[in-house]
């Protein structure tokens, strides 16, 4: 039998059902693994060991009473932008250092109802703004595959915790690639659901028209099981769609007969690390071997996704982050005059990238520049969305495709410190993931190879509420390959 | 430089950020570079294109106004920097008129 901390969630579930292992043992193994490796990785900001052990004992009791469930007794980590009562939710920011949320996010209520064991909160770029976790006020997370490299971001702590086998599952959030990009850098599976698929109630807001909670696992089945547990309409989030949630495990079939895979020409070539292009082209051949029909498609506005995103997301964040004013919660720098309380609190409490984006956003929204920047970006967003609509619905020139496939990132994980002084270079690492969020569609990244010992991610994007399609293609590919069985050299 | 020093100071004041001298210089340079890059959107003719604020078909979502359990007064004040008589204490907001 594999060591307990190495088990995937579905493997752990089987052993739990058979009574061969207890939730308490699994949780103790996770906590021991965290104690063993997290000093080097720094994936966690807070480990809630006592609460986890209590939740594990409760899960064992529920199992003794006959209850069963995919996540009942399975350890999980939560990105520190999602509210879990009883421990701080810092968002990787000094401004929320001591903030303990008075309520639970809907996804946390759902996970607790399902019996998942919450082990703690994971590191993130401040307010999820970043691509490396280097923007965390609490220091960077290290990539388990190479400790001098970033794990990606912003959900780098969650990706690293899963990759380093501290926990089988983790939640992240993805506003422009913040689940998929770290999944690619850390060699795990990361799924960004369609906008509206998962409730954002209790997810600290960054850019409200783009934010979505996503799932991490060490295989596609686990990422799907976790999505199953958190998906669905929530009356407390007016942007969650009132649609039924399909049984995602039904999509996990190992062949691709009748599936059309679109390969956007804009996603390969210029600017992509050659080893990544080679790995992705090989992956596309594997999809063809599994029965998929490969079709060349075009997403002509791909190049405009980055400037569009870096106007819309900052504009929304400048409004969302106005709430951190030192009055009701969080850091407060006292001053004689109330306006100075605001200025000093925000000046001290917010980090460089957050300040940059809040100012950029306010500028793009300000009188005289609104039409030129913000409105323009919203119009180009329409064009980007239409590109995907055409590809998924088909046109006179091409038949409709089920999914679109390409690399998740233009490079493998870069070195810590390499891009911190050049914001534009940092932004470019998200160039292949941003348009998913702008279009509101779903995407998944899964391992498809290595370059010099660093993982490469294959990105599969599907239409809005088409999670079954991306899961099917991802699962079939994974079952035909062995990349997901590779483990980082930590022991 | 797309942005002047005065514009950076103006926008910092809009978002109520106290910046150091060094920050003003740095952000003038960095925000200018980002806006320069963003200007490539001008290559596209969008005169006839409607803007997208949300990708969802939902508009004006309503629900029944039902009383639900809430964390309660005390829990909501627990994170406040200063509390007095069950209220959040703040500095004077309205100044005396002369």
Task: Give the topology, please.
The complex is a heterodimer of chains A (491) and B (98).
Chain A: H1 9-17, H2 23-41, E1 44-47, H3 49-64, E2 75-79, H4 106-114, E3 117-122, H5 156-163, E4 169-173, H6 180-186, E5 189-192, E6 213-217, H7 220-230, E7 260-264, H8 274-289, E8 293-297, H9 305-320, H10 338-349, H11 352-365, H12 370-393, E9 403-407, H13 423-428, H14 434-439, E10 442-451, E11 454-462, H15 467-480
Parallel strand pairs in A: 2-3, 2-4, 7-8, 7-9
Antiparallel strand pairs in A: 1-3, 4-6, 5-6, 5-10, 9-11, 10-11
Chain B: H1 5-14, H2 21-38, H3 73-77, E1 83-84, E2 87-88
Antiparallel strand pairs in B: 1-2
Radius of gyration of chain B: 23 Å
The named CATH superfamily of the domain at 4-256 in chain A: Amidase signature (AS) domain
Order of helices and strands of chain B: HHHEE
Mean pLDDT score of chain A, rounded? 97
Low confidence ranges of chain A: none
Rg of chain A (C-alpha, Å)? 21 Å
The N- and C-terminal alpha carbons of chain B lie at a distance of 44 Å
Q: Give the SSE string of chain A.
A: HHEHEHEHEHEEHEHEHHHHEHHEEH
Which fold name corresponds to the CATH topology of the domain at 4-256 in chain A? Amidase signature (AS) enzymes
Note the main sheet of chain B.
2 strands, antiparallel
Count of helix runs of chain B: 3
Question: Widest sheet of chain B: strand order?
Answer: 1-2
List unreliable stretches of 5+ residues of chain B: none
The CATH architecture of the domain at 5-43 in chain B can be given as Orthogonal Bundle
Label the CATH architecture of the domain at 4-256 in chain A.
Alpha-Beta Complex
What CATH calls the topology of the domain at 5-43 in chain B is Histone, subunit A
What is the multimeric organization of the chains shown?
heterodimer
Query: Structural class per helix/strand content of chain B?
Result: mainly alpha
């Amino acid at each position: 039998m594999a060591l307990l901390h190495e088990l995937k969630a579905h493997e752990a579930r089987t052993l739990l059902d058979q009574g061969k292992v207890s939730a308490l043992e699994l949780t103790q193994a996770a906590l021991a693994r965290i104690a063993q490796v997290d000093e080097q990785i720094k994936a966690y900001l807070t480990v809630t060991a006592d609460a986890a052990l209590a939740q594990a004992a409760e899960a064992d009791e529920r199992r003794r009473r006959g209850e069963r469930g995919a996540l009942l007794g399975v350890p999980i980590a939560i990105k520190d932008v999602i509210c879990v009562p009883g421990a701080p939710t810092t968002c990787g920011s000094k401004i929320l250092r001591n903030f303990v949320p008075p309520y639970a996010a809907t996804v946390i209520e759902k996970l607790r109802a399902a019996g998942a064991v919450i082990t703690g909160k994971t590191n993130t770029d401040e307010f999820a703004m970043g691509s490396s976790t280097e923007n965390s006020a609490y220091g960077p997370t290290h990539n388990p595959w190479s400790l001098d490299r970033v794990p990606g971001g912003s959900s780098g702590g969650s990706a690293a915790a899963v990759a380093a086998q501290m926990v089988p599952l983790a939640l992240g959030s993805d506003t422009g690639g913040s689940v998929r990009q770290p999944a690619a850098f850390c060699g795990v599976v990361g799924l960004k659901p369609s906008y509206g698929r998962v409730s954002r109630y209790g997810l600290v807001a960054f850019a409200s028209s783009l934010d979505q909670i996503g799932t991490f696992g060490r295989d596609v089945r686990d990422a799907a099981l976790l999505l199953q547990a958190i998906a669905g309409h929530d009356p407390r989030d007016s942007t969650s769609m009132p649609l039924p949630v399909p049984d995602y495990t039904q999509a996990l079939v190992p062949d691709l007969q009748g599936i059309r895979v679109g390969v956007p020409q804009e996603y390969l070539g210029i600017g992509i690390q050659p080893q990544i292009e080679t790995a992705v082209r090989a992956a596309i051949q594997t999809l063809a071997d599994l029965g998929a029909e490969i079709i060349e498609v075009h997403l002509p506005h791909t190049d405009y996704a980055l400037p569009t995103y870096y106007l819309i997301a900052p504009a929304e964040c400048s409004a969302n982050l106005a709430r951190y004013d030192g009055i009701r919660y969080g850091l407060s720098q006292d001053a004689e005059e109330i306006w100075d309380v605001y200025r000093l609190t925000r000046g001290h409490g917010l980090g460089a990238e957050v300040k940059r984006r809040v100012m950029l956003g306010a500028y793009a929204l300000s009188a005289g520049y609104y039409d030129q920047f913000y409105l323009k970006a919203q119009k180009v967003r329409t064009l980007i969305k239409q590109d995907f609509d055409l590809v998924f619905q088909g046109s006179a020139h091409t038949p409709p495709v089920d999914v679109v496939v390409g690399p998740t990132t233009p490079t493998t994980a870069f070195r810590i410190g390499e891009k911190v002084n050049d914001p534009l270079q940092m932004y470019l690492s998200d160039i292949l993931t941003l348009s998913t969020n702008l279009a509101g569609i779903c995407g998944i990244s899964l391992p498809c190879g290595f370059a010099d010992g660093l993982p490469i991610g294959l990105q599969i994007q599907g239409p809005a509420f088409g999670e079954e399609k991306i899961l099917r293609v991802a699962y079939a590919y994974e079952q035909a390959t062995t990349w997901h069985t590779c483990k980082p050299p930590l022991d | 430089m797309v942005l002047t020093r005065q514009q950076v100071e103006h926008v910092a004041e809009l978002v109520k950020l106290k910046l150091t001298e060094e920050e003003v210089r740095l952000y003038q340079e960095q925000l200018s570079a980002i806006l320069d890059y963003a200007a490539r959107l001008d290559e596209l003719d969008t005169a006839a294109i409607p803007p997208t604020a949300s990708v969802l078909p939902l508009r004006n979502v309503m629900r029944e106004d039902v009383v639900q359990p809430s964390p309660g007064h005390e829990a909501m004040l627990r994170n406040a920097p200063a509390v007095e008589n069950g209220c959040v204490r703040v500095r004077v907001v309205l100044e005396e008129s002369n």
